[in-house]
Amino acid sequence: MPRLSLTMWLSITALGNVGVMIPLALAVAAWLGIGYPRRYVFGWLALLGGACGLVFLSKIAFLGWGVGLRGWDFTGISGHAMVATAVLPVALFVALLPARGAIRASGVAFGMVAGVVVGVSRVLLHAHSVSEVVAGCALGAAVAVAFARLAWRAEAGRIAPAPVAASLAVVAITLHGIPVPTQQWITQIALELSGHERPFVRARWKAGHYDAPIRRTEAPAPYRAAA
């Protein structure tokens, strides 16, 4: 792995932000709906939605209840690694659907490599552990491969590769670097569901501190004088 500057790794990790990858995934779905049978749209959204659900649940379980694998330093599936490894291969695959099988396969492979690089950036920036990124990349790759198998024999529609690729590139470039506070949203949901005032924190959990965050206490009902 070449030595890159901190700025470059931050730029790479920003590519895997859901603020980029989810709009890109929806753009892929739109092109599928325009040029191919609708079953491919539903298949793609179902596969990606299921994977996003697993990421969400794994994060909620740790933040709200401290569920994880301490020996593996695992507190939840890396969302950046998952969506990048799922969306980038499928975006290239859809753009190259009219091409020969070998070219499509090359696009999928290149997209997976790009997704893995996003995952590596999460480890190098200390945002995730290796186990969390491996889980994310594995889940994302499973989504990409499952969709490629589903749509491999799709007959080429009336869409040429150039406009598809250009539009997907515009989406990625336009939204790159725009922050989306997904971690804050997930943390808030975890606290609402668990009833805790504070989320579980990796450092204390990893050190073996099992003390649960303080539970919220309901404010006492206002005193009402007897009539």
Structural summary, described in words:
There is one protein chain. It is built from nine helices and no strands. It has 227 residues and is mainly α. It has one domain. The longest helix is centred in the N-terminal third of the chain and has 28 residues, at 38-65. The chain is elongated, with a radius of gyration of 21 Å. Mean pLDDT is 89; it is low at 219-227.
In short:
The chain has 227 residues and is mainly alpha-helical.
Describe the secondary structure blueprint for this structure:
Blueprint: H1 6-15, H2 18-35, H3 38-65, H4 79-95, H5 101-124, H6 130-151, H7 161-175, H8 182-194, H9 202-206
Helix pairs in contact: 1-5, 2-3, 2-4, 2-7, 3-4, 3-6, 3-8, 4-5, 4-6, 4-7, 5-6
How many structural domains are formed by the residues? 1
- Percentage beta strand: under 5%
Shape: elongated
Distance from first to last alpha carbon: 77 Å
Radius of gyration over all CA atoms, rounded? 21 Å
Coarse structural class: mainly alpha
Mean pLDDT: 89
Largest β-sheet summary: none
Spans of at least 5 consecutive residues with low confidence: 219-227
Please provide the count of β strands: 0
N-to-C order of helices and strands: HHHHHHHHH
Helix content percent band: 55-70%
**Total helix count?**
9
